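To illustrate the input format used throughout this study, we show a single complete record. The first block contains the structure-token representation of the backbone; no residue identities are included at this stage. The design step must infer an amino acid for every position from geometry alone.
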């Protein structure tokens, strides 16, 4: 007679199935057969006395009960991992799953993650880049780093830094301006969702709002940067992103005494996740490394 599968294994299998949306994909991740993964799901449903997922030939979706169980399963698994980490005598290890914003996640944050992996070779980092809002519970990630507010009040949110932003243009389009209102005669390249038809600029206690005509809008900072370099319009961009362009003269600071509103870099994670050593070490590294980037300051 086969031995019953332990409860943590059932929960771990269920969580991976939910994350992948597929029993076969979860089985591959876990190194078990599809039949075993399916049996784990059925066993958990039998023990809880409720269906957790609706299966069809081509898809799998959690039931309402499944969504609730998934949140509790992740909390239990995180608690177990934290317990193991606290009492382990060896290196920090395991899977650290991070959702990061595209621009910072391709550059500054990647450098921090690479250094962390070099310091802790037993750590496996799962690095996902996404600017749009995500549902962290569905992804099964440990934390979500986001520029701007985090639209999920079920998560713990901490500030990691403040991003300086300025109005820039290619020198062929315009030279430095004397007053913000002069920018309203120039075409605006807008970055969604931060800039629409109006831009608030600050100079100390002074505040000036301008409304240049929008001729190009995008949700991708790399595309915005490329169009700005072409001379097609003015754009609000982070200082850290354009510092080299400013130094090389490819872009100019249109209003050196004025700055667009700073954006906050936040990190969000489920309650209790900070007990994980691997997450705590990563966040310490980010909090130490991010303010070293020109144009990004420590939280006020």
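Output of the design step:
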């Amino acid at each position: 007679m086969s031995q019953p599968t332990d409860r943590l294994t059932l929960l771990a299998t269920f969580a991976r199935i939910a994350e992948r949306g597929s029993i076969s994909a979860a089985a591959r991740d876990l190194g078990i057969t599809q039949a075993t993964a399916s049996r784990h799901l059925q066993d958990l449903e039998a023990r809880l006395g409720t269906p957790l997922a609706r299966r069809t030939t081509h898809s799998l979706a959690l039931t309402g009960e499944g969504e609730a169980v998934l949140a509790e399963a992740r909390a239990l698994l995180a608690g177990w991992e934290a317990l193991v980490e606290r009492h382990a005598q060896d290196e920090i290890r395991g899977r650290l799953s991070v959702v990061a914003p595209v621009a910072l996640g391709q550059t500054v944050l990647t450098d921090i993650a690479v250094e962390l992996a070099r310091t802790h070779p037993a750590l496996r980092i799962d690095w996902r880049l996404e600017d749009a809002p995500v549902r962290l519970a569905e992804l099964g990630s440990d934390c979500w780093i986001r520029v701007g507010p985090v639209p999920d009040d079920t998560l713990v949110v901490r500030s990691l830094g403040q991003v300086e932003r300025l109005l820039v243009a290619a020198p062929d389009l315009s030279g430095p301006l004397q007053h913000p209102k002069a920018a309203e005669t120039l075409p605006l390249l807008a970055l969604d969702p931060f800039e629409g038809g109006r831009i608030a600029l600050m100079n100390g206690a002074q505040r000036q709002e301008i409304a240049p005509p929008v001729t190009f809008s995008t949700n991708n900072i790399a595309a915005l940067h490329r169009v700005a370099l072409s001379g097609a319009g003015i754009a609000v961009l982070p200082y850290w992103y354009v510092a080299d362009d400013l130094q090389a003269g490819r872009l100019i600071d249109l209003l050196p005494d004025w700055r667009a509103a700073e954006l906050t870099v936040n990190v969000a994670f489920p309650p209790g996740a900070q007990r994980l050593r691997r997450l705590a070490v990563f966040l310490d590294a980010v909090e130490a490394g991010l303010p070293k980037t020109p144009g990004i300051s420590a939280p006020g």
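Structural context for interpreting the output: Residues 90-161+264-297 form a domain with the D-Maltodextrin-Binding Protein; domain 2 fold (CATH 3.40.190.10). The mean pLDDT is 89.
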